[in-house]
Amino acid sequence: MTSTELHATTQVRVPDPAAAMDLLCDFYREHDCDVQQNGEITVIAAGPGTFRLGTGDQKLGITVAAPTDTGVSQLQTNIITLIDRMVPGADVNCRWQGAGRGRAANGKLPNFRELTVGNVTDLGPDMRRLRLHGDDLSPYRAGSGIHVRLLVPPQGETMPQWPGLGENGMLVWPTGENRVEQRTYTIRRINVDEGWMDIDFVLHGDNGPASRFAGHAAPGQLVGVTGPIGNDLPDADWYLFAADETGIPAVCHYLEALPTDKTGQVIFEVSGPGAKIDIPAHPGFETVWVFRDGTSAGGSAGHGQSGRANRADFATAVCDVALPDDGRRIFCWTASEQAVHRQLQQHFRKECGLGRDQCLVMTFWRAEGQDG
Ligand SMILES: Cc1cc2nc3c(=O)[nH]c(=O)nc-3n(C[C@H](O)[C@H](O)[C@H](O)COP(=O)(O)OP(=O)(O)OC[C@H]3O[C@@H](n4cnc5c(N)ncnc54)[C@H](O)[C@@H]3O)c2cc1C
Predict the structure, then answer these.
(1) Could you give the CA distance from residue 56 to residue 59 in angstroms, rounded to a whole number?
(2) Which ligand 1 atom minimizes the distance to the CA of 209?
(3) In the chain, what are the domains?
(4) Rounded distance from Cα 341 to ligand 1 centre (Å)
(5) Does ligand 1 lie within 6 Å of residue 213's CB atom?
(6) What is the 47 CA–ligand 1 centroid distance (Å)?
(7) Residue 195 zone, left/alpha/beta (φ > 0; ψ -120 to 50; rest)
(8) Distance 246 CA to ligand 1 centre (A)
(9) Can you tell me the ipTM of this complex?
């Protein structure tokens, strides 16, 4: 933790602090975070900052650190929600000292904005772009993290009840039938001056609240947003970007932002040739499209199939890429379904021996019926 970071601390009562620590460390390792255990102190690098965890008499001491108040608040929510979900007998009715006070001031989620659907544009059979309009989108401007948490109201709800933040950092969800659902999406493009952001949704049917919302979206509908989340793309000379449809918006965002002297390879997986979408041209990148056996990830052919299509070709194509070994700085970025993610993580971390500063291998969604 550096002196320029903001900090907040709390203590959570748990029956077995050592067991709680093990559960948390396992979780963050599984999510590819750096976990350093040094005696009774554990430091975990996660998202916008770090957690410092220590064990005491039936308690976990927690310090979160991040460069911004929003980052501190996000980490508070992250760790307390996780403890509540994973640690048996934990008493998460705690209070925080230090930064993250935006939470206490108004009980709203960090940078919460209510957005209104404007233009609805089909990019292909499986993807739809919604232009979302809102006031003061400056916290989401380029360079602040390209992902957001969308708060999606039930179909047809015109007066959504948005969640708030409790003193312990956990979300407080309104009860009742107009409860919203939270899902993670990517800002494909944003114009703060004009007050809009574009989000590209994979249409995989009415089986999930976000896909259903996008599939039936009409101008004037409301959706909430909080964030932003995610770190900057590290500087490198050569990049590999590999993603199924869910990661295409992020890769397009990066391709538009990268200087023209950067080079690399892009691999996209979509349902078939008809599902290709227009992507930004970058002179240093070659793009390969991999098709899934004619089975759609969504759209008309795939509704209700939960993306069980064969994704082996994509994983093979990614693993076959020859990474430069001529001294250029490389960075590999992948976004995929969870089972594919495991293969790619094994490949890049174990077989290629890349460190966290050289690759980010992410799960963007989980197909129903997959283990784990
Ligand atoms: C950092 C990050 C950024 C993301 N950015 C985007 C983005 O810009 N655009 C985007 O479309 N997605 C994006 N995703 C993925 C998105 O959050 C998930 O697909 C999410 O599960 C969709 O929520 P839902 O409510 O539609 O479905 P859920 O309620 O989560 O799931 C309902 C059913 O749909 C299935 N399902 C979920 N996603 C898919 C899919 N892609 N294809 C087929 N079946 C699916 C599930 O297996 C489940 O059976 C991102 C994820 C992360 C972590």
Answers:
(1) 5
(2) 25
(3) 6-106 (3.30.310.50), 113-227 (2.40.30.10), 238-365 (3.40.50.80)
(4) 14
(5) no
(6) 19
(7) left
(8) 7
(9) 0.99
Q: Which residue has the higher pLDDT, 370 or 239?
A: 239
Q: How many CB atoms lie within 10 A of CB 346?
A: 13
pLDDT in tens, 155-206: 888 889 899 889 899 988 888 777 899 999 999 999 999 999 999 999 999 9
Q: Does 308 sit in the ligand 1 pocket, CB within 6 Å?
A: no
What does residue 106 show for φ and ψ, rounded to 5 degrees?
Answer: -130, 0
Among the listed residues 206, 225, 244, 217, the one whose alpha carbon sits nearest the alpha carbon of residue 129: 217
Query: Could you tell which of 200, 202, 229 is best to mutate to test the pocket of ligand 1, judged by most ligand atoms within 8 Å of the CB?
Result: 202
At 105-159, the pLDDT tens digits run: 567 888 999 999 999 999 999 999 999 999 999 999 877 789 999 999 988 888 8
Cα 290 from Cα 141, distance rounded (Å): 32
Q: For residues 41 and 37, what is the distance between their CA atoms, to the nearest angstrom?
A: 6
Please compute the mean of the pLDDT values over residues 272-288 and round it to a whole number.
95
The b-or-e profile of 284-302 (16+ CB within 10 A means b, else e) is bbeeebbbbeebbbbbebb
Pairing assessment for the beta strands 285-291 and 222-229 based on DSSP bridges: unpaired
Q: Is the CB of 271 under 6 A from ligand 1?
A: no
Q: Whose CA is nearest to atom 12 of ligand 1?
A: 246
